[in-house]
Amino acid sequence: MPDRTEALARLAVTPDRGPGDDARLVAETEAALLAGATGIVFREKSLDDPAFVRRATALRSVAAARGAWFILNERLEAADALRPDAFWATFRSPDLGALRARLGEAIPIGRSVHGVEEGLGRAREGYDFLVLGPVRATPSKEGLVSPLGWEAVGELSRAVDVPVVAIGGSLARGRRARAGRGGDRRGLDPRLVSRRAARGIARTRRGGPP
């Protein structure tokens, strides 16, 4: 199993697909991992609990077979059944203390943040990684949150001691983007990519650009 920085280096996010088509999503997940993804974020808002756990279990097995992380997004009630490698909390999630009580100390817990100041606050609370975005224009956030740009990634990375994952827009290129169909909601979304952010952490701490 990779360490935390390596595991967060290049992630693929599953789409909110709804019922059915599990086999296709498994195939797309395998393709994303073969194309270089270091982890899979399972994000599904509309499935009921049995269908959610069934689909997530299949994807977790694919990730484990490739030595990649399986990151559970938001659905805390499924954590006992899925035993994720990490948990990604959002504004809908309980506070960090409640998450630790449920998940234990061994599972890294990250938090979505939408600005540098919010990220600084969440880091002080004790989250293990931060998901900052949108870095680029993202249709689902249009009119809600303005794109932050890579400068924000560098600024937050310089200021905190935890990994900063950049999200928003089609950040991947080349084979990874083709494997994930860019921002197409029919397939895996490769927008969540922290390799650039990880380089930003190293470079900005030496005083260079992200």
Model description:
By secondary structure, the protein is α/β, with parallel strands linked by helices. The protein is 40% helix and 13% strand. It has nine helices and seven strands; from the N terminus they run αβαβαβαβαβαβαβαα. It has a seven-stranded parallel sheet. Helix 2 runs parallel beside helix 3 and helix 6 (116-125) runs parallel beside helix 7 (150-159). It is globular. The relative contact order is 0.16. The model is unreliable at 171-210 (pLDDT under 50).
Q: In a few lines, what is going on in this structure?
A:
By secondary structure, the chain is α/β, with parallel strands linked by helices. The protein has helices at residues 4-7, 22-34, 49-65, 79-82, 96-103, 116-125, 150-159, 174-180, 195-205; strands spanning 11-13, 39-42, 69-73, 86-89, 109-113, 129-132, 164-166. It contains 9 helices and 7 strands; from the N terminus they run H-E-H-E-H-E-H-E-H-E-H-E-H-E-H-H.
